[in-house]
Model the fold of this input.
Amino acid sequence: MSLVASIRPDDWNFPLLVHVVGAALLVGGLVTAVIALLLGWNRESAWYSRLGFRALVFIALPAWFVMRIGAEWIYSKEGFSGEDEPGWLGIGYLTADLGGILLLLSIILTGLGVRQLGRGGRETSVLARIGSVIAVLVLLAYVVAVWAMSGKPD
Amino acid sequence: MEFYDWLLFLHVFSAFALVSALVVFWFVAVAARSVNRPVESLRYFRVAKPANVLVVIGTMGTLVFGLWLAIDADAYQVWDGWVLIALALWLVAAGTGQRGGQTYAKAAKLAARLDGEGRGDQPSEELRVRLQDRRAMWLNVISSLAVVLILIDMIYKPGA
Done:
């Protein structure tokens, strides 16, 4: 399957590049956010949560759109119809779209948590913590997506 | 999934680890560009610390699994032009990235020392200079560009 993919037509390369660059930046943004948000569990919650929130908003979210646009572009070129779609494509769609919703939820919760912490008087924020757990889940989902997209299981 | 597919997954996973480390480093570098107080810079260095592990996994994983793939697959050879280009770019990325990172590692040590001496809240000109070191920044720019070029090379596979 992978060798077949490696001899794809040349005009598939750029959409694939857009998709892969978006996906790599998305994972990078999530990694940055998760590190900062988890550090905020033990110390200086307001500062680390704000940094994690910014990584989600300014890196992960725009990268999600780049990844998703690239995915749709290459899908349109590959000419799959609904019936003959391989399993890895379904995993990709599921993780991309469900991950996008969860990413948005994580941004909202973390943002509300940062706002709570910014008002002072609080050491921690439950909302920011829930947001960080969701960000971890999204990151794990995208590792599964990387496995599905590269290994292409049937 | 066949053995080749697992190798490809590990190769791609390593590439994602490498790009993730670069994203963390750049995010921290941009956010900390105007920092001059040790205590504040230490916060950023704590965020960057796990990325040091990712960069090792990424650089070694892409090389080892990439070469393994080229040896395992009949369609490719290690001496194919696009593989040799990738190897050359990998050397550039690893070499410049390591040199650029040394400056920030020294800045982290300096910040920790100043904080240990009870001067964590006092602005430090030496720390600011190290954090804004232009040579280190350019080395990291070159390293990141090399990684982007490797990605393009891997997808387009010129000459394959």
About this structure: Residues 45-78 of chain A form the longest helix (34 residues). Chain A has five helices and no strands. Residues 19 and 71 of chain A are 5 Å apart (CA to CA).
